[in-house]
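Ticket #4471: complex job returned nothing on first submit. Input attached below:
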Amino acid sequence: MAKRGSYAKGVAKREEILTRALEVVAEQGFRSASVREIADAVGLSQAGLLHYFGTKEQLFVEILRKRDEVDLVRFTHDPDSPAFIREDYAAVIEHNSEVPGLVELFSRMSVEAADPEHPAHDYFVARGEAVRTTFAEALRHRQEAGELTDAIDAETLARIFQAVSDGLQVQWLLDRDVDMPGAVGALFDALASPPPPRRP
Amino acid sequence: MAKRGSYAKGVAKREEILTRALEVVAEQGFRSASVREIADAVGLSQAGLLHYFGTKEQLFVEILRKRDEVDLVRFTHDPDSPAFIREDYAAVIEHNSEVPGLVELFSRMSVEAADPEHPAHDYFVARGEAVRTTFAEALRHRQEAGELTDAIDAETLARIFQAVSDGLQVQWLLDRDVDMPGAVGALFDALASPPPPRRP
DNA sequence: GTCTATACCTAGATAGAC
DNA sequence: GTCTATCTAGGTATAGAC
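Support reply: We reran it on our side without changes. The output follows.
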């Protein structure tokens, strides 16, 4: 029997809102990032929307979480395959250029969340760690296979790749002609060889 | 004879305000980035400050310009020397970790300025181009000297280094333990060798 | 040139009807 | 659960006195 005040329904509605919000932000950007605009877009009043998410920041973090969730199943294949880091990563970056609003939301919030008191702070810290861990592992495999320089440790390299992709996003927001996948691919290639003998 | 309404004085005062604002933001951060806070800090009323700068955005762009100006004379040595890119760049990054407020201001505004209508848009576009041009030239010299891989062209590499430093700043804002100069140095080292022979 | 005071706006949060 | 209406806060910009 359904619970009193059945709140499975509330959860489902939340998910529905998030999915819709994700589409809207992706397509139309998020302009001034007001709750009201998201509310209009998902077909609710501002108060109606806040009923589900409490505060503005919580709403936006949830949108980013939902994005991660969707991207994860969409883009993650076998982390052990050689294609994982090179191709899947490129695919994510390529995909990002189709969702400028999400890139903007992400970039903006990641700076605002610098303050430890910010409601999104923990999200960004945890996400960063997760990303770097996954990356480092995949990179280490490539190093062990001799396909990637070991002149630099996998953890640092993971951090660098994270920085490159975040930094390129900012450049790209400023100028949509910036070729994000091209730049990342080029870096990857440049690092793809083992270090040379001291003197050939 | 001094001009009527002598405005050399106004310019001097502007400079004075900017210099002071730079110090204040560098040291104390810029919290919520309101005009009032800067005004308090430089010892003017909010209205008094806007008398000099017109709008909030203009004020903030001017602060960033002033920062560039100061850093330029402070950190730029001979662009032809081998130390230029490796050491001077590291010095700038090292210095940045002593001025968190400026890093935050810069990072935040660079995202907000994505909109072509934003008053700081042109500043960021021009600055990015200038940075990359300077970098690319220095990197090309290193390549020609055989000290840096030429598996990747200098322009792309310049873009990547820009992305790395912007991206690391965001990571560092989130977690002050991040070693920015260390990561950049490691990347530089990893790229420091020419590509190896096909099979040793 | 600088201040005080205030107008005005935007936006998030809340109360209460339905 | 959702809306309308309203409250409140905070911030920029401006008017006008000194």
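The mean pLDDT of chain B is 90. Closing as resolved unless it happens again.
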